[in-house]
Structures are given as structure tokens and as C-alpha cells.
Amino acid sequence: MLLTVDDDPSVSRAVARDLRRRYGQDHQVLRAASGAEALDALREIKLRGGRVAVMLADYRMPEMSGIEFLEAAMDLFPRARRALLTAYADTDAAIAAINLVDVDYYLLKPWEPPEEKLYPIVDAMLEAYTGQPDVEMAETKLIGHRWSVPSFAARDFLARNAVPYRWIAADEPEGGRLLQAADLGAQTLPVVITADGGTLVAPSTTELATAVGLSTTPATDFYDLVVVGGGPAGLGAAVYGASEGLRTLLVERQATGGQAGQSSRIENYLGFPDGVSGAQLTDRARRQAVRFGTEILTTRDVSGLEARGPARVVSFGDGTEVAAHAVIIATGVSYRDLEAPGVAELSGRGVYYGSAATEAAACADADVFIVGGANSAGQAASFFSRYAKSVTLVVRGDSLERGMSYYLIEQLQALDNVSVRLCTVVDQAHGDEHLERLSLRHVPSGATEQVPASYLFVFIGAQPRTDWLAGVLERDRRGFLLTGPDLLVDGQRPRGWLADRDPWPLEASVPGVFVAGDVRAESVKRVASAVGEGAMAVTLAHRYLGAP
Ligand SMILES: Cc1cc2nc3c(=O)[nH]c(=O)nc-3n(C[C@H](O)[C@H](O)[C@H](O)COP(=O)(O)OP(=O)(O)OC[C@H]3O[C@@H](n4cnc5c(N)ncnc54)[C@H](O)[C@@H]3O)c2cc1C
Q1: Given this model, what pLDDT does residue 109 score?
Q2: Is 101 within 8 Å of 74 (Cβ atoms)?
Q3: Contact criterion met (CB below 8 Å) for 249 and 295
Q4: Does the global pTM surpass 0.85?
């Protein structure tokens, strides 16, 4: 990658344009408007295992000078070649910086024509970069057993949090060598070796998160806004909250992205005419939230909410808490369990909830079964058909049209290796170490058949996990949170309602607590509506903060 930093938008655009014209085919050109923004981008790149060959920074920038930026950037990418962009008047200072921070070149603005004044220098820097001895890139290594549930959980966690890592099976020679080097046996899997050489044996997700640099403890104990849940609704709220100047904390139990993060292809979200994978959408949203200043905590499960005077306090399982002026609950829904003998025992060993994209490569030439008749199941069938020998959709209902969008049904019909079994349920899952067979029952006839099956992905509807809010916020019969006008019964405000007004739309039964996305009663279960509600909840939080 080539990175340019300049606070003057027209200069920044011009540098990036000139660089792209000449190097765009082989290199990605990134631009940032400040040193801080560029450092954030570099941290991201580092985490994803990217490589930065050249950095061009403007000498005179308001908050962080080009020299300060390059100095900090060297800690992240010491091998990248560095140049300062300067005006003629700053030439002396720039020359001094060559010695001070080991800058390779300085470039006088304007550099017209680039063929003469810019490209020869960048060419030289690229040559210097590629000429250096290739050091092995530091990376996190995960050594585990292919069919072990904790090994799968660690892989899934790293993948869903976009942490680059190398998976090494314990029975491969390299796995054996690493375990030997760490003086460990195969009974203690998974083992994680971090980029700086630290070793973690069978870590909890919080230990793993901390080791790979994901934040797990809040920086302070009071925020303007705490958002609980990092799916589309929570990320939407975080982007709008932080961009509008609220000190915002986002708390996520597992990995940002929520259900959408597990989607192999979202085709109906505005602005992505060719579809976008849930992982890509999540990555962009998370970076956007962080860029605006959101603090994100991962692997922290919020387990309590309390109104303490004007503060809204959320607490964690370990007894710690953070307070805020306003809280947005965006905890979405989780998959319902498939109740059939053998399914729970084989979960993580061939049986998965959600699409488990990490398993895609392992599905090559396998018989894959998907339970469910909604869009999520259809997307998964289409996704796994690219890898598997056969994909069978097991649907309880008597037609696909009832639960699936027309475009997906058409897609599936065009795929040779996808078949659909209607009016059918999974009666039992069989296997020792891994799923081997399924018993399927045709409901109208009662006929049962055993079929070979290596993988079963379950998509059978979802439920809100709001037990921790019982007695705190009003819920409907199924546990979804009630908001706004839905809270009024015969015109009466909810029990214990503290404000001298009716609840606003999206506001829960405690003033200053708002609800967005799938967890809200009567919400539309879609990415776009979740994001929209997240944004709207922020507007209402502003109104609440400004209210007398
Ligand atoms: C496979 C699949 C494919 C889909 N495809 C599409 C599609 O193509 N188009 C479309 O519009 N919609 C699609 N959907 C639906 C869409 O993903 C959801 O409507 C959307 O994700 C809802 O967003 P949300 O933020 O409300 O909740 P979620 O996405 O469910 O996110 C909630 C988040 O909160 C976290 N959380 C829960 N409890 C706590 C707690 N106590 N403390 C901290 N964190 C907590 C969870 O870990 C989760 O990350 C799909 C869903 C699935 C499962």
C-alpha cells in the first residue's frame, strides 16, 4: 500500500490521483486528512496483515506535523519508506528532518509534472522497499484440533473480529513443532501464539481478545452514550453518536456485526448493487465507528441495567459497571436451538448455528444440509453450493415462497447441486467425533430416512435474549422490548415511568433508554431498518440530553 497524509483536501486528492495513475494497478493508494487518521488506518492495516511500502506526509499539518506522524508510523511499519511534502519556505526544516526521523526524501509542492518530480522519487522508494530482506510477517498462530469445539470457537472468534491469524492443525508437522517449542502437549488445545510470541493455552474469549489487541475494559466510567450490542443497529448508533460529538461506548458480547456479520451476501442493503458480505459490511462499519471516536469493548456481556438518578448504569457479569446519560439497547436476537437427539452433542463438530464461513473450505466435496426456509437459509445454501458436493435445504413448510425472497428462490433453482426437501424435519444427528449422518422425517407421511451428512447449518428463527432486562424494561410475551406508543395501555404510561411526558418512539419504559433493531418489539428484521433505528435512537438520545 501507498499512504499519503495531507490536511489540505485539494493537495491530498491530487497526490492520491497522481499515485493511482502510475501505481494503482499494483498498489492500493490510501489517503488520510490528518496524522491521527493515518495512524488509525495504519493500525487497521497492521491488524489485517497488510503491508505499507511508502508513506508521504505533509510537513505542516495542524495537530500532528508530518515529522511527528512519520515518527509514530515507524513504530508500526519500520520498513516503509518515508517522504515529507513541503512548501519551498519549509525546505530547511524538512532537510533537518531527514536526519531527525530518518526521512528518505522530501518533495517540494507543487510537484508538476509528476513524471519528473514525483514518480522518480516514489519509484526509488518502492525499489528500496522491495530490495530489503523479506522479514517474516508477525502473525497470530492458532494451533488446534479440526473437530474440537473450543478450537472452532477460537477460529470463529478471530475470523469474526477480522483478526488475521494462521490456523495450524496440531497433527501437522508445523503444529507439532510449535507445540514442542512451547513445551505443550496436544491435550491442551487450542494454543494461541500471539504476534509478539506470547503463548495462551485454551484461552477464554476475553483472554484471546486482550491478547490480539481488542479492547475489553472501558477507558473511563462515564459516557454520554452507551450502546449495548454491536450488530447493524448498535454500529449504526455508534457511528451517528460519535460523529455527532457524543462520547460513545459500544459494548459487544462476542464480535461486532451481529447476525449480519454472519451473512454470506446481503443483496438488499442500499448502496451495494452487487451485494456485500456481512464481514465486509461489518469491517467498514466498525472502522467508521472507530474513526469517529467510538470506544468498542469486545467479549463483554452486559448483564444489568439500572436508573440511578439521572445516570443510566450498565453492569457486567464480573460486577464492574459503566454509567451514561443515555443507553441504547441493540442486542438483536439469537438463533433458536434445534431440538433433536444428537444435535447438541455435535454442535461445533459438524453442526453449526449461522453460516460458519470458516468451515467453507472444509466443506469441499461434502454433503451439506441447511435447516430453515427463510432468506438466511437460502443465502447459506447459495454460498455453500460453491464449495460442497451437494447442498440440501431441509424446510418444515410446504413451500419456499412462504419465507424466502423471490430472487433467492430463483438463484437456488439455477444451482445444480442444491436440492430442497419440503415438509421435512431433522429427527436425529449421528456421528462420533464429527457429524456423519442425519435422520430426516417427511412430516405428512411420517417416513424417516438416514442420509450421509458432513455438515448441518441451522437457521430456524430467532429469539431475543432479554432475560437480564426482566423487571427492568417492559417486554412483550416473547421477550421483545416494548417502546414508544406500544408502552401505553389504555392511555396509561408504563409502571414506574419517571418523566412528565409519554415515551418517545424507540424509548423503552425507562426514560433515556432507547431500543434499536431486531430486539425491539414489532421491528422490521432487516439490516437497513436496524441501521436506521440506530441512527434515529441517537437523535432521540440528543433530544433527551437536551430536555430540561
Ligand atoms: C444469515 C443471515 C442473513 C441475513 N441476511 C439479511 C439480508 O440479506 N438482508 C437484510 O436486510 N437482513 C438480513 N438478515 C437480518 C439482519 O442481519 C438482522 O435484521 C440485523 O442483523 C439486526 O441487527 P441488530 O443490530 O438489531 O441485531 P443483531 O445483528 O442480532 O446484533 C446484536 C448484537 O448484540 C450482541 N449482544 C446481545 N446481547 C448482548 C449483551 N447482553 N451484551 C453485549 N452484547 C450483546 C450480539 O452478540 C450481537 O452482536 C440476515 C440475518 C442472518 C442471520
Answers
A1: 80
A2: yes
A3: yes
A4: no
Residue 288: CB atoms within 10 Å? 16
For residue 322, what are the CA distances in angstroms to 91, 217, 224, 311, 539? 50, 10, 11, 10, 22
Cα 403 to its chain centre, rounded Å, is 27
Angle (nearest 5°) at CA 50 between 49 and 55: 140
Ligand 1 atom closest to 267 (CA):
8
Give nearest CA residue, ligand 1 atom 35: 229
Crossing angle for the helix pair 406-413 and 375-384, to the nearest 10 degrees: 30
Q: How far apart are the first and last CA of the chain?
A: 51
Query: Which atom of ligand 1 is the closest one to the Cα of 233?
Result: 25
Q: What is the pLDDT of residues 303-339, one digit of tens each?
A: 999 999 999 999 999 999 999 999 999 999 998 889 9
How far does residue 260's CA lie from ligand 1's centre (Å)? 5
Q: Three-state DSSP class for 232?
A: helix
Q: Which cell goes with 502?
A: 409519554
Phi, psi dihedral angles at 484 (to 5 degrees): 50, -135
301, 527, 536, 538, best to mutate for ligand 1 pocket (most atoms within 8 Å of CB) = 527
Ligand 1 centroid to Cα of residue 334, in Å, is 8
Task: Kindly give the distance from the C-alpha atom of residue 319 to the centroid of ligand 1, in angstroms, as a whole number.
Answer: 26
Kindly tell me the burial class for residue 170, based on how many C-beta atoms sit within 10 Å of its own C-beta (0-12, 13-18, 19 or more).
buried
| Residue 117 pLDDT | 86
DSSP 48-94: TT----EEEEES--SSS-HHHHHHHHHHH-TTSEEEEEE-GGGHHHH
Residue count of the chain, please give it.
Answer: 548
Residues with CB under 6 A from ligand 1: 228-234, 251-254, 258-260, 262-263, 266-268, 301-302, 330-333, 354-355, 375-376, 379, 465, 517-518, 525-528, 530
Q: What is the pLDDT of residue 266?
A: 86
Query: What are the residue ranges in the chain where pLDDT is below 70?
Result: 47-49, 96-102, 131-138, 548
Rounded to whole angstroms, how far apart are CA atoms 241 and 246? 5
Tell me, in angstroms, the distance from the centre of ligand 1 to residue 231's CA.
5
Nearest CA, atom 22, ligand 1 = 518
Q: Closest ligand 1 atom to the C-alpha of 301?
A: 42
What was the pLDDT predicted at 99? 61
**pLDDT value for 138:** 53
Cell numbers at residue 355, please? Answer: 453460516
